[in-house]
Design brief:
heterodimer; A: alpha+beta; Ubiquitin-like (UB roll); DNA polymerase, domain 1; 2 domains; five-stranded mixed β-sheet; 5 helices; 17% strand; B: alpha+beta; Uridine Diphospho-n-acetylenolpyruvylglucosamine Reductase, domain 3; Enolase-like, domain 1; 3 domains; five-stranded antiparallel β-sheet; four-stranded antiparallel β-sheet; 29% helix
Chain lengths: 159, 272
């Protein structure tokens, strides 16, 4: 039996029917059509499925879809404003912080969660913020530098 | 197979449903149960959840602390009064996991997870169980020793508030900043005139469930926290343990490194 749920996705009201026990990741991708959220491990380990729920980072693969009813979800699909990339997206491009790109949506959302609460993070703060997100390409340094650039407003494309 | 999800406004009703439903599991943050569902665990037929606000309560007074079982690691880190627990909560997963991982979930997490339960064991915590006919309390040690036997719903944990720096904790991991635990040690070491009285030491990762290091505790009684004073405790540190051989470490290695990390902890060499 499917259950109807309603929530906000990137500022817009959405509704979906979910199977009992469905996770938020599958719901966003398959029921709502937001393919910006990636699935990696479905175990809460890799971090690529990170979204923001009411402003806090959460792993959508281990979040019960029904538990987000009435709440506000942010994904990378909501980062850009029209033609303007979010400063984090621009900084990731300029710093070559994405190689295969698989971890990038989770990295961006983990970084956004940090900058929304702490606009002037230290390098240590950034390392901690992305500590639950695994990247097997970059060695993390370009990602850390991109987040610090975005915080300083050093990227060319500003929101 | 579709799973039935039942949501209750009151914990007592959720506890009743948990006891009555075949194949029912309680879900809080989801870090354990959703993972099992994603892996198609056939034993889960019903998920029981509760929106009871008491589940997320934090109550701190001068003498006592009570944490709702739904309190997350992130909520603990946001509470200054719980600073003595911050070193423990901070090493549970990354930020997104800490927003979901709960006090109650830790009590039922198998190694390499569940380090927070070891800290609660060292704090001599009591588990408050919700039930259809009211609440009852159970020493945490007893709950952990029989946690596999049946469905119980922990509504909160309570313990005497320790002195600011009384709880010591170390998590041994192979990966920083976020790695699962090879083992962890929590210790509360009250001192009277410089000598240990009533030490509480707990391990995670050294048995199927967190356990007290009672031989080491006894060996520390009346001793000073220096190399000579802790020598006997280190000699018996692994008594009663039954660590696993797994992909993280062998049982032999865990037993070998246990006294090394316990020594550092007892001598105040800092957190991991």
């Amino acid at each position: 039996m499917k259950t109807p749920i309603q929530f906000q996705l990137n500022g817009e009201d959405v509704a979906a029917f979910v199977e009992g026990g469905a996770n938020l990741l599958d719901t966003l991708r398959e029921a709502v059509g937001d393919l910006s959220v990636k699935g990696g491990c479905w175990q809460g380990t890799c971090g690529t499925c990170t979204v923001l729920i009411d402003g806090s980072p959460r792993l959508s693969c281990i979040t019960l879809a029904e538990s987000v009813a009435g709440r506000s979800i942010e994904t990378t699909a909501g980062l850009r404003r029209g033609a303007d990339l979010h400063p984090l997206q621009s900084a990731f491009m300029e710093r070559f912080a994405a190689q295969c790109g698989y971890c990038t949506p989770g990295m961006l959302m983990a970084a956004k969660a940090l900058l929304d609460k702490n606009p002037n993070p230290t390098r240590e703060n950034v390392v901690e913020a992305i500590g639950g997100n695994i990247c097997r390409c970059t060695g993390y340094e370009p990602i850390i530098n991109a987040v610090l650039d975005a915080a300083r407003g050093d990227s060319r494309h500003r929101a | 197979m579709s799973i039935t999800v039942k949501t209750f406004p009151r914990l007592a009703d959720a506890a009743s449903a948990l006891g009555q439903e075949r194949g029912a599991r309680f879900i809080a943050g989801g870090t354990l149960v959703m993972r099992a569902i994603n892996e198609a665990d056939p034993s889960i037929e019903t998920i029981v959840r509760s929106t009871d606000p008491a589940f997320g309560n934090i109550a701190v007074s001068s003498g006592r602390v009570e944490l709702g079982a739904g309190v997350t690691m992130a909520a603990i880190l946001a509470e200054r009064e719980l600073a003595f627990l911050h070193p423990v909560a901070r090493v549970v997963g990354g930020p997104a996991v800490r927003e979901a991982a709960t006090v109650g979930g830790n009590l039922f997490a198998h190694p390499p997870y569940g380090d927070f339960a070891a800290a609660l064991l060292a704090l001599d915590a009591t588990a408050v169980l919700a039930g259809g006919f009211g609440q009852r309390e159970l020493p945490l040690e007893e709950l952990l020793s029989r946690r596999e036997r049946g469905a119980v719903l922990v509504s909160s944990v309570a313990f005497k508030r320790p002195a600011a720096d009384a709880l010591r904790f170390v998590k041994v991991t192979r990966m920083h900043p976020k790695g699962v635990s090879v083992l962890s040690i929590a210790a509360q070491l009250p001192l009277t005139s410089g000598r240990v009285t009533g030490a509480r030491i707990a391990y995670n990762g050294m048995a199927p469930a967190p356990l007290r290091a009672k031989s080491a505790e006894r060996a520390l009684e009346g001793r000073t926290l220096d190399a000579a004073g802790i020598a006997q405790a280190l000699a018996v540190a692994a008594d009663g343990t039954s660590p696993a051989d797994d992909a993280l470490a062998s049982a032999w290695w865990r037993r070998e490194i246990l006294p090394i990390h316990l020594r550092r902890l007892l001598l105040g060499a800092g957190h991991a």
